[in-house]
Amino acid sequence: MAKTIQADICVIGGGSGGLSVAAGASQMGAKVVLLEKGKMGGDCLNYGCVPSKALIAAGHAADTVRHAGKFGVNGHEPEVDFLGVRDHVRGVIAAIAPHDSVERFEELGVTVIEAAGSFTGPGEMIAGDTRIKAKRFVIATGSSAAVPPIPGLDHVPFLTNETVFDLAERPEHLIVIGGGPIGAELAQAQRRLGARVSLLEMFTVLGKDDPDVTAFARKRLVEDGIEIHEGIAIKEIAQDGNGIAVSIEVDGKPQRIVGSHLLVAAGRRANVNGLNLEAAGVTYSAKGIEVDARLRTTNKKIFAIGDVAGGYQFTHMAGYHAGIVIRNVLFKLPAKVDYKAVPWVTFTDPEIAHVGLTEAQAREQFGDKVRALKWSFEENDRAQAERATEGLVKVVVGARGKILGASIAGLHAGELLQPWVLAISQGMKIGAMANLIAPYPTLGEVNKRAAGSYYTPSLFSERTRKIVRFLQRF
Asked: pLDDT by residue (tens digit) across 308-323?
């Protein structure tokens, strides 16, 4: 007979969002049950953000050695111990893992059940030999790599973000399917660690961001030696001796690319299988679970957060969702999501960062009232000192100087974006950024200079000169 647990909140999924809900709710006095069938920390810690950034850091270290000559330091082709790189990635995961561990959450008062959960009704589910009855449920099961329906793909070995970090030897020639953020980041990291890389994209590499900023990253990918194939159709994948052959079509002309390894980075799919959502009265689709602005599903006692809820698939959004749920469930506040200031960063070199509306989106909504302000990293003294002048800040401004969006390409773009996130979330105008005092010499001055350019046409106009000449008479 299954034992029964009564809880205030049952959280399904021990990734970023689920752990945030479980930790917060338990420390605030709620009785919490947490279900996790795999590894605590979820995709972000074990297969996503953490290992990818650790691998990118290794690639950056190799590239720094390779190009140190521009600083007058002995630059040379580095020797890469790929097994050592793997150990580095695993070491970073191990350093963070205790924060997400079963032991820590049990110390916080959370009942952790290491098993898959399946709904048996609208207010209960079963996990292993335990039945859980809860006042509220939070589904935080995340997403997994989507496998596109390419002929032959199911007959060859291929890597995804869940397996690529386990490689103990450098791929001789890595073929990457998918030119989005994950594909571009991993392609560049592997190339900088010495692999030959071919990047295949049906449309345009990094096509979801503003082309004015993605141009910098795309240029660097090419300079690094990545073979980019855009606007292609993949016709078939087949084994080719010990390698893998991908048959593509470009402008109606067939091509064949043969590599040693294949990485599929062609999007994500919500993890809903096995939850038996039908029994709980929860509506879902291939895109994820249907939720309202308060993140409630069609069963108002069940919430869904993070990747499984569709929409923005970022770890920081899962954490944001967790706060919305806690306010709704624990404090009975009708808190709703607000997506006007959602930031994201693609960790290529140079980084690409964005928040708010792109120029194209803003012009579609507001027409001629929109102005695009730009400032190049070449005009920044710190960027010159760092020999990192390839970059741009682009700010989209609406009527009366309201900040609508910002995109940045360049060194530490993700860090430089954060003032713009605050500005948009608080409805600030461009004068707030233009008037701040930025320490010199810092990269952050690019933000102030871009903002200040809003006033350049009026400050240095003939009208201003006439006013100044008149006032100087007194």
From this structure: 999 999 999 999 999 9
Confidence of residue 1 (pLDDT cuts 50, 70, 90): low
183 is in an annotated binding site: yes
289 marked among binding-site residues: no
Q: What per-residue confidence (pLDDT) applies to 462?
A: 87
Residue 142 annotated as lining a ligand binding site: yes
211-261 pLDDT, tens digit each: 999 999 999 999 999 999 999 999 999 999 999 999 999 999 999 999 999
Of the candidates 337, 286, 314, 299, which has an alpha carbon nearest to the alpha carbon of residue 142? 314
- Ligand-binding annotation for 401, yes or no, is no
- Between CA 310 and CA 263 the distance in angstroms is 24
Determine whether the annotation assigns residue 179 to a binding site: yes
In this predicted model, what pLDDT tens digit does every residue of 389-441 receive, in sequence order?
A: 999 999 999 999 999 999 999 999 999 999 999 999 999 999 999 999 999 99
Instruction: Give the DSSP per-residue string, 292-319.
Output: -TT-B-SSTTEEE-GGGG-S---HHHHH
**Cβ within 8 Å of residue 74, ≥6 positions away:** 68
Interatomic CA distance for residues 125 and 10, integer angstroms: 9
State in words which class domain 153-267 has.
Answer: alpha beta
Is residue 204 annotated as involved in ligand binding? no
For domain 3-144+269-329, the question of CATH label 3.30.70.660 is answered with no
Which position has the token pair 């820590």? 104
Tens of pLDDT, residues 27-46: 999 999 999 999 999 999 99
Same topology, domains 3-144+269-329 and 350-459? Answer is no
Confirm whether residue 107 is marked as ligand binding.
no
Both tokens of residue 379?
Answer: 């005009």
286-293, long-range: CB < 8 A, 24+ apart: 288/143, 289/139, 293/336, 293/337
Establish whether 109 is an annotated binding residue: no
- Tell the CATH topology of 350-459: Enolase-like; domain 1 (3.30.390)
User: How many other C-beta atoms lie within 10 A of the C-beta of residue 376?
Assistant: 16
Strands annotated E in 347-458? 351-356, 371-376, 392-397, 403-410
Please indicate if the annotation marks 259 as binding a ligand. Answer: no
Question: Residue 345: CB partners within 8 Å, gap ≥ 6?
Answer: 351, 352, 353, 354, 413, 414, 417
- Tens-digit pLDDT profile for residues 344-387: 999 999 999 999 999 999 999 999 999 999 999 999 999 999 99
Q: Locate the domains of the chain by residue range.
A: 3-144+269-329, 153-267, 350-459
Nearest of 33, 197, 39 to residue 106 by alpha carbon: 33
Does the annotation place 247 within a ligand binding site? Answer: no
- On whether 20 is known to bind a ligand per the annotation, the reply is no
